[in-house]
Amino acid sequence: xxxxxxxKKKVNCLQLLLEQFDNELSRKVNEVxxxxxxxxxxxxxxxxxxxxEPSGDFFRSFxxxxxxxxxxxxxxxLVHVYRQIQSKMT
Length: 90
Description:
By secondary structure, the chain is mainly α.
């Protein structure tokens, strides 16, 4: 499949190929990916996750500063730890 597909809900993110097209968005996306690849001698395969899909939810749960359903955000975690420390000191 190609990024030029407009039926986003029908795109299988696991089968998506990053191709270069003659437009500004395609050039910018490819530049970002190529810069990441240039800076690292080895890199994992790029995976796209759509919001609401299980793979996207799983990935989001590992983002430190983003809040995921049922878990603390990083800031909330720090506040929780701070309160725990304060309660033990009093």
